[in-house]
Amino acid sequence: MTPKAKVIAFTNQKGGVAKTTTTLNLAAAFAERGHRVLCVDLDPQANLTMSQGIDPDSLEVSMYDVLVHRLSIREVIRKREVDVACASIDLAGAEIAMSAMIGRERALKKAIEPVRDDYDFIFIDTPPSLGLLTINALTAAQKVIVPVQCEYLSMRGLIQLQNTLAMVRDELNPDVEIEGILPTLVDRRTVHAKEAIEILEENFGDRVFASRINKTIRFAEAPVKGMSVLKYDPNGKAAYAYRRLAEEVLANGKR
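RESULT FIELD:
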């Protein structure tokens, strides 16, 4: 029996912390190594979907239909660099549409179960909030990777996330845990970034990944071309950083 896919949610309720960038590029780094990866786009902004050159407005069905109408997830998967279960703006209405559903927090977990044998990893990109879509991701996941921008306000959000995770563990998914905290958008020229990483390491110790994702224009350019940074600039520093992160995650936290 091949083991079922490991499910990893990428979450931080603060927007603009390179969550989608990390989901896609880590998936691309895993795919480079021969792993079968599915990325599930749970964000109504559909940035992950667009980052693979798919126009969300052209989709007949999306993750909204999977969660709300119980459509098979296979119907919304597109094959690109990695497989993407696509999002559309409809997802913005999913939380209201799901609010009366029984077992609404487990809708995603049920949806991905039939395809877990088809993949080695399932990555879930979440919206920048701790609402029902993110709760669905945390209920479906075994591990959580938290991209954190190296600044004070972004780090404060970690406390709220930990509270939400504790609640999910108590009520819905006792096994979910933080795989690691990833410093992103690091500007090495500033003292602030250095201090922020020190604070992170003081508070979270070896749960902070050794990898650092530095600020670079490549992250803005690649999605416009509908591809990961690894494909867009394969020999650049950004691609290297995500390959290094892939090694860390695959080593199961042995830092």
